[in-house]
Amino acid sequence: MKQLTFIIFIFFAIVTKGQESNGYEIRGTMLNAEGKQLYLTQRGNGMKSDSKVILLDSCVVHNEEFYLHGRVNETNYYSILIKNGKGWKPFILDNNSKLTFSGNADAIWEAKVSGSIDNKLSDSLSFVLNPLIRKNNQIVDSISKANEQKDTIKAQRFKSQYELLKKEQLSVRLAFIQKYPNCFESLNQLSIVSQSIDKEHSRNIFNSLSANLRQHSIGKEIQYQLFEIDKLTTQPLTFSQPDSTGKIVNIESLRGKYLLVDFWASWCGPCRAENLNLKKVYESYKSKGFEIIAVSLDTKKENWLNAIKKDNLNWIQVSDLKGWENDVAKKYGITSIPSNFLLDKNGKILAINLRGEELLKKLIEIYK
User: Fold this and answer.
1) What is the pLDDT of residues 255-269, one digit of tens each?
2) 288-297 pLDDT, tens per residue?
3) Which residues, in sequence order, are CB contacts of 269 under 8 Å at separation 6+?
4) One domain, residues 7 and 60
5) Tally of structural domains, the chain
6) What's this model's pTM, rounded to 2 decimal places?
Protein backbone atom coordinates (compact mmCIF):
# COMPACT_ATOMS: atom_id res chain seq x y z
CA MET A 1 0.00 0.00 0.00
CA LYS A 2 2.87 2.35 0.85
CA GLN A 3 4.46 1.57 -2.52
CA LEU A 4 1.18 2.34 -4.30
CA THR A 5 0.85 5.63 -2.41
CA PHE A 6 4.40 6.56 -3.39
CA ILE A 7 3.72 5.77 -7.07
CA ILE A 8 0.53 7.86 -6.99
CA PHE A 9 2.47 10.73 -5.36
CA ILE A 10 5.14 10.59 -8.07
CA PHE A 11 2.47 10.48 -10.78
CA PHE A 12 0.73 13.60 -9.46
CA ALA A 13 4.07 15.34 -9.01
CA ILE A 14 4.91 14.68 -12.66
CA VAL A 15 1.46 15.78 -13.81
CA THR A 16 1.66 18.95 -11.70
CA LYS A 17 5.12 19.73 -12.99
CA GLY A 18 3.91 19.23 -16.55
CA GLN A 19 0.96 21.51 -15.94
CA GLU A 20 3.22 24.19 -14.49
CA SER A 21 5.43 24.15 -17.58
CA ASN A 22 2.60 24.41 -20.11
CA GLY A 23 2.93 28.18 -20.28
CA TYR A 24 0.47 31.04 -20.03
CA GLU A 25 -3.05 31.18 -21.46
CA ILE A 26 -4.98 34.37 -22.08
CA ARG A 27 -8.60 34.14 -23.20
CA GLY A 28 -10.13 37.46 -23.98
CA THR A 29 -12.82 39.59 -25.53
CA MET A 30 -11.98 42.81 -27.34
CA LEU A 31 -14.64 45.21 -28.59
CA ASN A 32 -14.10 47.45 -31.63
CA ALA A 33 -11.16 45.41 -32.89
CA GLU A 34 -12.75 42.86 -35.21
CA GLY A 35 -10.20 41.47 -37.69
CA LYS A 36 -7.37 43.50 -36.18
CA GLN A 37 -3.99 42.24 -35.07
CA LEU A 38 -3.54 41.97 -31.30
CA TYR A 39 -0.11 41.79 -29.69
CA LEU A 40 1.31 40.56 -26.42
CA THR A 41 4.32 42.74 -25.69
CA GLN A 42 6.97 43.43 -23.12
CA ARG A 43 8.77 46.71 -22.58
CA GLY A 44 12.53 46.41 -22.54
CA ASN A 45 12.82 48.37 -19.29
CA GLY A 46 9.71 47.59 -17.30
CA MET A 47 6.65 49.76 -17.91
CA LYS A 48 8.46 53.05 -18.41
CA SER A 49 6.70 54.94 -21.18
CA ASP A 50 9.76 55.40 -23.40
CA SER A 51 10.94 51.79 -23.18
CA LYS A 52 11.47 49.71 -26.30
CA VAL A 53 8.50 47.47 -27.09
CA ILE A 54 9.29 43.78 -27.64
CA LEU A 55 6.66 41.72 -29.51
CA LEU A 56 6.16 38.26 -27.95
CA ASP A 57 2.94 36.87 -29.42
CA SER A 58 0.05 37.89 -31.66
CA CYS A 59 -3.33 36.82 -32.99
CA VAL A 60 -6.29 38.24 -34.91
CA VAL A 61 -9.46 39.24 -33.05
CA HIS A 62 -12.36 37.12 -34.37
CA ASN A 63 -15.97 37.44 -33.22
CA GLU A 64 -14.67 39.88 -30.62
CA GLU A 65 -12.59 37.10 -29.06
CA PHE A 66 -8.90 36.18 -28.93
CA TYR A 67 -6.65 33.51 -27.44
CA LEU A 68 -2.93 33.64 -26.63
CA HIS A 69 -0.80 30.77 -25.40
CA GLY A 70 2.95 30.52 -24.98
CA ARG A 71 5.87 30.94 -22.61
CA VAL A 72 7.65 33.93 -21.10
CA ASN A 73 11.14 34.13 -19.66
CA GLU A 74 10.00 35.15 -16.18
CA THR A 75 7.21 36.71 -14.17
CA ASN A 76 6.93 40.35 -15.18
CA TYR A 77 4.65 43.06 -16.47
CA TYR A 78 3.50 42.40 -20.02
CA SER A 79 0.98 44.29 -22.14
CA ILE A 80 -1.72 43.72 -24.71
CA LEU A 81 -2.18 46.27 -27.47
CA ILE A 82 -3.89 46.54 -30.85
CA LYS A 83 -1.89 47.18 -34.02
CA ASN A 84 -2.07 50.91 -34.84
CA GLY A 85 -4.22 51.39 -31.75
CA LYS A 86 -3.81 53.83 -28.89
CA GLY A 87 -2.46 52.78 -25.53
CA TRP A 88 -1.93 49.40 -23.95
CA LYS A 89 -3.02 47.36 -20.93
CA PRO A 90 -0.24 46.15 -18.61
CA PHE A 91 -0.64 43.14 -16.32
CA ILE A 92 1.44 40.57 -14.47
CA LEU A 93 2.05 37.32 -16.35
CA ASP A 94 4.01 34.11 -15.76
CA ASN A 95 4.03 30.60 -17.20
CA ASN A 96 1.33 29.43 -14.79
CA SER A 97 -1.08 32.24 -15.65
CA LYS A 98 -4.58 31.39 -16.87
CA LEU A 99 -6.00 34.85 -17.41
CA THR A 100 -9.26 36.29 -18.67
CA PHE A 101 -9.06 39.63 -20.48
CA SER A 102 -12.01 41.89 -21.20
CA GLY A 103 -11.44 45.15 -23.03
CA ASN A 104 -12.42 47.73 -25.60
CA ALA A 105 -9.85 48.74 -28.23
CA ASP A 106 -10.99 52.36 -27.94
CA ALA A 107 -9.89 52.45 -24.28
CA ILE A 108 -7.72 49.38 -23.90
CA TRP A 109 -6.00 50.74 -20.79
CA GLU A 110 -9.33 50.30 -18.94
CA ALA A 111 -9.49 46.57 -19.71
CA LYS A 112 -10.13 44.09 -16.88
CA VAL A 113 -7.70 41.23 -16.27
CA SER A 114 -8.74 38.44 -13.92
CA GLY A 115 -7.42 35.03 -12.95
CA SER A 116 -4.43 35.79 -10.73
CA ILE A 117 -3.93 37.04 -7.18
CA ASP A 118 -0.97 39.21 -8.20
CA ASN A 119 -3.05 41.16 -10.72
CA LYS A 120 -5.88 41.53 -8.21
CA LEU A 121 -3.48 42.96 -5.62
CA SER A 122 -1.85 45.22 -8.20
CA ASP A 123 -5.27 46.56 -9.21
CA SER A 124 -6.17 47.22 -5.58
CA LEU A 125 -2.98 49.27 -5.20
CA SER A 126 -3.67 51.20 -8.41
CA PHE A 127 -7.17 51.99 -7.14
CA VAL A 128 -5.62 53.87 -4.21
CA LEU A 129 -2.56 55.32 -5.97
CA ASN A 130 -4.04 56.50 -9.27
CA PRO A 131 -6.14 59.36 -7.82
CA LEU A 132 -3.05 60.61 -5.96
CA ILE A 133 -0.93 60.36 -9.11
CA ARG A 134 -3.54 62.20 -11.19
CA LYS A 135 -3.69 64.95 -8.60
CA ASN A 136 0.10 65.15 -8.58
CA ASN A 137 0.17 65.47 -12.37
CA GLN A 138 -2.31 68.33 -12.18
CA ILE A 139 -0.07 70.07 -9.65
CA VAL A 140 2.97 69.58 -11.91
CA ASP A 141 1.03 71.28 -14.73
CA SER A 142 0.15 74.12 -12.36
CA ILE A 143 3.82 74.50 -11.41
CA SER A 144 4.79 74.70 -15.09
CA LYS A 145 2.14 77.37 -15.76
CA ALA A 146 3.27 79.36 -12.71
CA ASN A 147 6.85 79.16 -13.95
CA GLU A 148 5.82 80.42 -17.39
CA GLN A 149 4.04 83.33 -15.69
CA LYS A 150 7.15 83.89 -13.52
CA ASP A 151 4.93 83.64 -10.43
CA THR A 152 7.45 82.13 -8.01
CA ILE A 153 5.16 82.41 -4.97
CA LYS A 154 2.39 80.42 -6.63
CA ALA A 155 4.90 77.90 -7.99
CA GLN A 156 6.34 77.34 -4.52
CA ARG A 157 2.86 76.85 -3.05
CA PHE A 158 2.11 74.17 -5.64
CA LYS A 159 5.52 72.63 -4.98
CA SER A 160 4.63 72.24 -1.28
CA GLN A 161 1.38 70.50 -2.24
CA TYR A 162 3.32 68.24 -4.57
CA GLU A 163 5.71 67.19 -1.78
CA LEU A 164 2.82 66.37 0.57
CA LEU A 165 1.20 64.16 -2.06
CA LYS A 166 4.51 62.41 -2.68
CA LYS A 167 4.73 61.54 1.01
CA GLU A 168 1.19 60.16 0.94
CA GLN A 169 2.04 57.99 -2.07
CA LEU A 170 5.18 56.76 -0.34
CA SER A 171 3.17 55.66 2.72
CA VAL A 172 0.72 53.74 0.52
CA ARG A 173 3.53 51.98 -1.37
CA LEU A 174 5.42 51.03 1.81
CA ALA A 175 2.27 49.63 3.43
CA PHE A 176 1.60 47.48 0.36
CA ILE A 177 5.11 45.99 0.33
CA GLN A 178 4.95 45.20 4.03
CA LYS A 179 1.57 43.49 3.67
CA TYR A 180 2.37 41.52 0.49
CA PRO A 181 6.07 40.44 0.52
CA ASN A 182 5.33 37.59 -1.93
CA CYS A 183 3.56 39.69 -4.58
CA PHE A 184 5.50 40.62 -7.71
CA GLU A 185 4.10 44.15 -7.53
CA SER A 186 5.98 44.60 -4.23
CA LEU A 187 9.24 44.23 -6.13
CA ASN A 188 8.13 46.90 -8.57
CA GLN A 189 7.13 49.17 -5.69
CA LEU A 190 10.46 48.70 -3.90
CA SER A 191 12.29 49.89 -7.02
CA ILE A 192 10.21 53.08 -6.75
CA VAL A 193 10.35 53.76 -3.01
CA SER A 194 14.06 52.99 -2.71
CA GLN A 195 14.70 56.34 -4.39
CA SER A 196 12.86 58.18 -1.60
CA ILE A 197 13.96 56.42 1.60
CA ASP A 198 17.36 55.82 3.14
CA LYS A 199 19.39 52.86 1.92
CA GLU A 200 19.31 50.94 5.20
CA HIS A 201 15.51 51.05 5.21
CA SER A 202 15.48 49.85 1.59
CA ARG A 203 17.84 46.99 2.44
CA ASN A 204 15.61 45.85 5.31
CA ILE A 205 12.57 45.87 3.02
CA PHE A 206 14.46 43.94 0.34
CA ASN A 207 15.49 41.27 2.86
CA SER A 208 11.85 40.91 3.95
CA LEU A 209 10.74 39.93 0.43
CA SER A 210 10.30 36.29 -0.55
CA ALA A 211 13.30 34.38 -1.89
CA ASN A 212 11.65 34.13 -5.33
CA LEU A 213 11.36 37.91 -5.59
CA ARG A 214 14.92 38.50 -4.38
CA GLN A 215 16.21 36.07 -7.02
CA HIS A 216 14.15 37.61 -9.85
CA SER A 217 16.14 39.64 -12.41
CA ILE A 218 14.58 42.84 -11.06
CA GLY A 219 15.36 41.67 -7.54
CA LYS A 220 18.98 41.14 -8.49
CA GLU A 221 19.10 44.62 -10.03
CA ILE A 222 17.70 46.13 -6.84
CA GLN A 223 20.16 44.08 -4.80
CA TYR A 224 23.00 45.51 -6.88
CA GLN A 225 21.75 49.05 -6.29
CA LEU A 226 21.32 48.54 -2.55
CA PHE A 227 24.33 46.41 -1.67
CA GLU A 228 26.92 46.80 -4.44
CA ILE A 229 26.61 50.31 -5.85
CA ASP A 230 28.24 51.78 -2.73
CA LYS A 231 31.51 50.21 -3.84
CA LEU A 232 31.35 52.36 -6.99
CA THR A 233 30.21 55.53 -5.27
CA THR A 234 33.04 55.50 -2.72
CA GLN A 235 35.32 56.32 -5.65
CA PRO A 236 35.22 59.57 -7.66
CA LEU A 237 32.54 59.45 -10.35
CA THR A 238 33.94 59.04 -13.84
CA PHE A 239 32.05 59.32 -17.11
CA SER A 240 31.89 61.26 -20.35
CA GLN A 241 28.96 61.98 -22.68
CA PRO A 242 28.18 64.33 -25.57
CA ASP A 243 26.60 67.69 -24.81
CA SER A 244 23.79 69.31 -26.79
CA THR A 245 26.24 70.32 -29.55
CA GLY A 246 27.86 66.87 -29.78
CA LYS A 247 31.02 67.83 -27.89
CA ILE A 248 32.21 65.19 -25.43
CA VAL A 249 32.17 66.39 -21.82
CA ASN A 250 34.38 64.51 -19.35
CA ILE A 251 33.26 64.91 -15.76
CA GLU A 252 36.90 64.85 -14.64
CA SER A 253 37.32 68.26 -16.29
CA LEU A 254 34.99 69.63 -13.61
CA ARG A 255 37.12 68.54 -10.67
CA GLY A 256 37.80 71.34 -8.21
CA LYS A 257 34.12 72.37 -8.10
CA TYR A 258 31.18 71.19 -6.06
CA LEU A 259 29.09 69.48 -8.71
CA LEU A 260 25.48 68.33 -8.92
CA VAL A 261 24.96 65.42 -11.33
CA ASP A 262 21.26 65.64 -12.17
CA PHE A 263 19.38 62.85 -13.99
CA TRP A 264 16.24 64.02 -15.80
CA ALA A 265 14.29 63.88 -19.09
CA SER A 266 12.04 66.15 -21.13
CA TRP A 267 9.03 63.85 -20.58
CA CYS A 268 9.46 63.77 -16.78
CA GLY A 269 7.00 66.23 -15.22
CA PRO A 270 8.56 66.20 -11.72
CA CYS A 271 11.99 66.80 -13.30
CA ARG A 272 10.72 69.84 -15.14
CA ALA A 273 9.14 71.14 -11.94
CA GLU A 274 12.41 70.61 -10.05
CA ASN A 275 14.23 72.72 -12.66
CA LEU A 276 12.70 75.79 -11.00
CA ASN A 277 14.59 75.03 -7.78
CA LEU A 278 17.79 74.21 -9.63
CA LYS A 279 17.71 77.54 -11.46
CA LYS A 280 17.49 79.42 -8.16
CA VAL A 281 20.33 77.42 -6.64
CA TYR A 282 22.51 77.74 -9.73
CA GLU A 283 22.05 81.50 -9.95
CA SER A 284 22.97 81.86 -6.26
CA TYR A 285 26.05 79.63 -6.18
CA LYS A 286 27.54 79.50 -9.68
CA SER A 287 29.87 82.41 -8.90
CA LYS A 288 31.13 80.54 -5.83
CA GLY A 289 32.25 77.52 -7.85
CA PHE A 290 29.08 75.42 -7.93
CA GLU A 291 28.27 73.61 -11.18
CA ILE A 292 25.53 71.35 -12.50
CA ILE A 293 25.83 68.67 -15.17
CA ALA A 294 22.44 67.33 -16.27
CA VAL A 295 22.29 63.82 -17.73
CA SER A 296 19.15 63.42 -19.84
CA LEU A 297 17.40 60.08 -20.26
CA ASP A 298 15.75 61.23 -23.47
CA THR A 299 15.86 59.25 -26.70
CA LYS A 300 14.89 62.05 -29.10
CA LYS A 301 17.31 64.94 -29.42
CA GLU A 302 14.65 67.40 -30.53
CA ASN A 303 12.58 66.82 -27.38
CA TRP A 304 15.68 67.17 -25.22
CA LEU A 305 16.80 70.44 -26.84
CA ASN A 306 13.29 71.91 -26.76
CA ALA A 307 13.01 71.22 -23.03
CA ILE A 308 16.39 72.85 -22.37
CA LYS A 309 15.26 75.94 -24.28
CA LYS A 310 11.77 76.10 -22.77
CA ASP A 311 13.04 75.72 -19.19
CA ASN A 312 15.91 78.14 -19.89
CA LEU A 313 18.57 75.81 -18.48
CA ASN A 314 22.05 77.32 -18.71
CA TRP A 315 24.16 74.63 -17.06
CA ILE A 316 25.94 71.70 -18.72
CA GLN A 317 23.61 69.31 -20.57
CA VAL A 318 24.71 65.85 -21.75
CA SER A 319 23.04 62.70 -23.08
CA ASP A 320 23.78 59.61 -25.16
CA LEU A 321 20.05 59.55 -26.10
CA LYS A 322 19.65 55.92 -25.01
CA GLY A 323 16.77 56.59 -22.61
CA TRP A 324 16.85 54.28 -19.61
CA GLU A 325 19.81 52.49 -21.18
CA ASN A 326 21.93 55.63 -20.69
CA ASP A 327 25.42 54.41 -19.83
CA VAL A 328 25.85 56.70 -16.82
CA ALA A 329 22.39 55.96 -15.42
CA LYS A 330 22.99 52.20 -15.67
CA LYS A 331 26.47 52.41 -14.17
CA TYR A 332 25.25 54.24 -11.09
CA GLY A 333 21.95 52.42 -10.61
CA ILE A 334 19.49 55.15 -11.60
CA THR A 335 16.00 53.60 -11.84
CA SER A 336 13.80 56.67 -11.36
CA ILE A 337 14.02 60.38 -12.05
CA PRO A 338 14.55 63.04 -10.93
CA SER A 339 17.67 61.72 -9.18
CA ASN A 340 20.96 63.41 -8.38
CA PHE A 341 24.39 63.14 -6.78
CA LEU A 342 26.11 66.06 -5.08
CA LEU A 343 29.88 65.66 -5.52
CA ASP A 344 32.75 67.24 -3.63
CA LYS A 345 35.71 68.90 -5.35
CA ASN A 346 37.38 65.49 -5.81
CA GLY A 347 34.35 63.96 -7.51
CA LYS A 348 33.20 61.86 -4.53
CA ILE A 349 29.56 61.71 -3.50
CA LEU A 350 28.58 63.97 -0.61
CA ALA A 351 24.82 63.42 -0.79
CA ILE A 352 22.15 61.75 -2.92
CA ASN A 353 18.79 63.10 -4.09
CA LEU A 354 18.89 66.50 -2.41
CA ARG A 355 16.08 68.68 -3.77
CA GLY A 356 14.54 72.04 -3.05
CA GLU A 357 15.25 73.32 0.45
CA GLU A 358 17.45 70.32 1.29
CA LEU A 359 19.85 71.13 -1.56
CA LEU A 360 19.86 74.80 -0.65
CA LYS A 361 20.65 74.03 3.02
CA LYS A 362 23.53 71.78 1.99
CA LEU A 363 25.05 74.46 -0.23
CA ILE A 364 24.66 77.07 2.50
CA GLU A 365 26.58 74.71 4.77
CA ILE A 366 29.30 74.16 2.15
CA TYR A 367 29.80 77.81 1.24
CA LYS A 368 29.32 79.40 4.67
Assistant:
1) 999 999 999 999 998
2) 999 999 999 9
3) 137, 140, 141, 144
4) yes
5) 3
6) 0.66
